[in-house]
Design a protein that fits this description.
The protein is mainly alpha-helical. 54% of the residues lie in helices and 11% in strands. The protein has a two-stranded antiparallel sheet with strand order 1-2. A two-stranded antiparallel sheet has the order 3-4. The chain has a two-stranded parallel ribbon with strand order 5-6. Helix 3 crosses helix 4. The radius of gyration is 18 Å and the shape is globular.
């Protein structure tokens, strides 16, 4: 199956075109909920973020890392995280994929690796618990992200959405969301698009609060990558 076919087909299944009308919660209430949660959580998270920064810095890393991601309406922004990769991450990735066809296929399917040579020992723990993503609260305050939404993607990854990229582009990326909770880094891109569409079709204050609550449970079970 070609990459082009992958955009619309998976094992003979066609994803139907997606259209919807935005409710008042998405237009006005979602941003209010984001700011309220951020202001409540900020005093709690700041000491944790500072501690993680010190731990990572003590290992010779920069501490914080800003990766360029695609936001709503195609806006490019810096998505902040605690540094979890080695300094020569891209070089290591290229060499690893060239020497490991199975890993190269896994990367092509999911943009994730079971055994990622770029991740530090401390970084593995931070990723499994999603603690590396705590600095994204600054992205929420800045308005580039929401607490709940599609997982933020790179400019290369957005092409994987094909004709369904508008499903992603009309929403703010989220710190958590359906894919982050239910997929937990294990689904391929067909499943990921389906989950983004599922969220967009059912978006509401109660579903957002439920996903935030589920995220706490997911963080206690260290299965992320």
């Amino acid at each position: 199956m070609s990459d082009q076919d992958f955009h619309s087909f998976k094992e003979g299944v066609v994803i139907a075109p997606f259209t919807r009308k935005k409710a008042h919660y998405e237009l006005w209430g979602k941003r209010t909920l984001d700011l309220a949660f951020a202001l409540v959580l900020l005093p709690i998270l700041l000491p944790v973020i500072a501690l993680l920064w010190l731990v990572v810095r003590s290992g010779g890393s920069r501490g914080f890392f800003g990766h360029r991601r695609v936001g709503r309406n195609g806006k490019i922004f810096s998505c902040y995280k605690i540094q979890t990769m080695v300094a020569d991450a891209e070089g290591r990735l290229t060499a690893y994929l060239e020497s490991n066809p199975q890993a190269a296929q896994e990367w092509a399917d999911t943009q994730k690796l079971t055994n990622d040579p770029r991740i530090t020992k401390v970084g593995k723990f931070l990723r499994k618990t999603s603690l590396d993503e705590l600095p994204q609260i600054w992205n929420v305050l800045a308005g580039d992200m929401s607490f709940v939404g599609p997982r933020p993607v790179t400019a290369v990854e957005i092409e994987r959405y094909g004709v369904h990229r508008d499903t992603y582009l009309e929403l703010k990326p989220g710190i958590t969301g359906v894919w982050q909770v239910e997929g937990r880094s294990s689904g391929d891109y067909f499943e990921r698009v389906q989950m983004d569409r599922k969220y967009a079709a059912t978006i509401g204050i109660f579903s957002d609060i439920l996903l935030i609550a589920k995220t706490v449970t997911v963080m206690i079970q260290p299965t992320g990558r």
